[in-house]
Amino acid sequence: MDARIKLSDRISRLIKNDIEKGKYKPGDKIPAEPDLMKLYEVGRSTIREAIKALAMAGVVRVQQGMGTVVNAVDDSEPIDSRLRRADFDEINAVRQMLDKEIVSLAVENHSQEQLKQMHQHLQSRKEAIERNDRQACMDADIAFHITIARAAGNSVLFNLYQSFTNVIRDFFLKREPQGIGQFAMSHHLHEQLYNAIKSKKQKAARAAMQQILNNNY
């Protein structure tokens, strides 16, 4: 990821934080580009990238002749849409908490059929790595983790996890370089996770999950 994109992401988060704190309220115009450049001490292209990202996330709208206006929050908005506007680091932190709880429950509550499905998805993941098929690898990886979430036996937790997974998958699709390097490097950890769940080894399962999270896959 190049430095300019990283900087624009940071600026979009700062503007979003100011909106959440009430500095800019729904219906308000945020400052014009020259003022934002001075306020955040960055160039015009960075400000434009940041505003574009906020507009795509639905946080603001750019109106011709009016400038950039803060959108109102819709309480009836689906959770997936809200999550896509949230800060990625915050999303990822909550997802990590969910993953650890889900693994603990899956160790105790999984069925033999769910174990079979986990194994099948793990095999598909391995075959996709060998073919260098990134999309198939990502699909198998998500299916593997979703099956673990289902095996936890808590429908609310499962629905939350599914929403977080969709948002994070979209993030990596847009931002990560093409290839299967990280999938390949973490495959043995997924095998360790599966074996720990199968053997009902709580500590080993949580340790494997933590290492997977440390690798971002």
Automatic annotation (TrEMBL):
Keywords: DNA-binding, Transcription, Transcription regulation
Membrane-traversing stretches: none
Superkingdom of the source species: Bacteria
CDD domains reported for this sequence: WHTH_GntR (cd07377)
Keyword Amino-acid biosynthesis attached: no
InterPro entries: GntR_C, TF_FadR/GntR_C, Tscrpt_reg_HTH_GntR, WH-like_DNA-bd_sf, WH_DNA-bd_sf
GO molecular function: DNA binding; DNA-binding transcription factor activity
Boundaries of every HTH gntR-type domain copy: 5-73
Protein name: FCD domain-containing protein
